[in-house]
From TrEMBL:
Family: Belongs to the bactofilin family.
Pfam family, one: Bactofilin
Organism: Vallitalea pronyensis
Name listed for the protein in its UniProt record: Polymer-forming cytoskeletal protein
InterPro entries in the record: BacA/B
Source superkingdom: Bacteria
Length: 132
């Protein structure tokens, strides 16, 4: 049986500090990143991304796992789990396969859940039962 991939928020290899403002075209990382300051640009993180309460991102984010306690203005494409805490503010469309939304989190945009290949589709199960 295939186990669910759980969020693994590793110790970040890169930290954008609370008093730091970084303006960039794209930040790409194969290891975990934590944002406590301000980041302007897109992010492509092949591990976990944590946006602290003082963290702010203006740009699109692609990541395996994302924990948001701060603010993001941009679209999110998360292959694993997205966790929005009570202090999070997201303005943009969300694409993810798993989401946790704490009471108090704010979302201004659409949320699209990706289908998991390993899960049976309800429509297919119904068709199989009809054909039997």
């Amino acid at each position: 049986m295939k186990q669910k991939k759980k969020a693994s928020y590793d110790k970040p290899a890169t930290i954008i500090g609370k008093e730091t403002i970084l303006e960039s075209a794209t930040l790409k990382s194969k290891s975990s990143v934590q944002v406590n300051g301000k980041f302007y640009g897109d992010m492509e993180i092949e591990a976990s991304l944590v946006v602290g309460e003082s963290g702010y991102i203006e740009g699109n984010v692609v990541s395996d796992f994302l924990l948001v306690a701060g603010q993001i203005q941009g679209n999110l494409n998360i292959t694993g789990q997205l966790h929005l805490t009570k202090t999070s503010r997201v303005s943009g469309d969300i694409h993810t396969s798993s989401i946790i939304i704490d009471e108090g989190a704010l979302i201004d945009g659409n949320c699209h859940m990706k289908h998991r290949q390993s899960l049976p589709q309800p429509e297919n199960d119904m068709l199989e039962k009809k054909n039997k």
